[in-house]
């Protein structure tokens, strides 16, 4: 009796996560929203790093994600995420960083799919990421928009498929024009909840963020926040 062939498991996704870091991180969080003041550089950097740590935590728990490659030149990552694989940012902007990460990922796993994920997803749940990555297996190139429908939180590419990242203003449209299929990810998915502004942060806090972001947002009544501009946005401020 011939032995039955066991189907091979799909190759895991290599996930590229760019991280700007430094004093310029998340500059739009410096802008006030209603009565809620914006954040100073040190507060923005602290939050950006917390967003990244929560994002990476979720990726590690996704059952179809493999290696995680962070593209950054922020020295804080060495201690903040000591077991991370970090590639130096080439310093030519976000798209150049993503391109460098994808090229590096493909040199390590040429037969596996690759995805580029923004590092500002403090609400991200592993199941939401896993579901999107499974949908992406059906397309040579894929894209997931942010909750506003204009930005991008995830792009995907199958092995050997050329990809040119187009992050920036109206990036979701730019990616679809470049051949990325818009993946049918629910509007409520935590994969679409990136944080760029104080209003985004307020929304994320109401949905529920990871432990690193919770710890990085000081409470208004705490002694550490007295006399500082760093404050928790409220629903009324959105």
From TrEMBL:
It comes from the Bacteria. GO terms for biological process: F420-0 metabolic process. GO terms for molecular function: GTP binding; phospholactate guanylyltransferase activity. Pathway: Cofactor biosynthesis; coenzyme F420 biosynthesis. Phosphoenolpyruvate binds at residues 152, 168, 171. The keyword Nucleotidyltransferase applies. Residues 214-238 are annotated as: Disordered. Its EC number is 2.7.7.105. It catalyses: phosphoenolpyruvate + GTP + H(+) = enolpyruvoyl-2-diphospho-5'-guanosine + diphosphate. The keyword Nucleotide-binding applies. Keywords: GTP-binding, Nucleotide-binding, Nucleotidyltransferase, Transferase. Belongs to the CofC family. Guanylyltransferase that catalyzes the activation of phosphoenolpyruvate (PEP) as enolpyruvoyl-2-diphospho-5'-guanosine, via the condensation of PEP with GTP. It is involved in the biosynthesis of coenzyme F420, a hydride carrier cofactor. This is Phosphoenolpyruvate guanylyltransferase. It comes from Zafaria cholistanensis.
């Amino acid at each position: 009796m011939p032995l039955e062939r066991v189907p091979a498991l799909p190759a895991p996704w290599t996930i590229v996560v760019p991280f700007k870091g430094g004093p310029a991180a998340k500059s739009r969080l410096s802008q006030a929203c209603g009565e809620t003041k914006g954040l100073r550089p040190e507060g923005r950097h602290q939050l950006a790093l917390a967003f990244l740590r929560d994002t990476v935590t979720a990726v590690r728990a996704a059952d179809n994600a493999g290696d995680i490659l962070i593209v950054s030149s922020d020295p804080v990552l060495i201690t903040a995420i000591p077991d991370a694989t970090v590639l130096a940012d080439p310093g030519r902007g976000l798209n150049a960083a993503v391109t460098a990460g994808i090229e590096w990922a493909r040199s390590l796993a040429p037969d596996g799919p690759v995805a580029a994920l923004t590092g500002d997803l403090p609400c991200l749940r592993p199941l939401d990421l896993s579901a999107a990555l499974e949908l992406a297996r059906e397309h040579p190139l894929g894209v997931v928009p942010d909750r506003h429908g204009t930005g991008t939180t995830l792009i995907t590419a199958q092995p050997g498929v050329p990809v040119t990242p187009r992050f920036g203003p109206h990036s979701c449209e730019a990616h679809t024009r470049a051949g990325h299929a818009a993946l049918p990810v629910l509007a409520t998915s935590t994969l679409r909840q990136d944080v760029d502004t104080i209003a985004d942060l307020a929304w994320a806090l109401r949905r529920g963020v990871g432990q690193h972001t919770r710890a990085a947002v000081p409470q208004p009544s705490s002694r550490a926040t007295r006399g500082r501009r760093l404050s928790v946005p409220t629903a009324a401020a959105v």
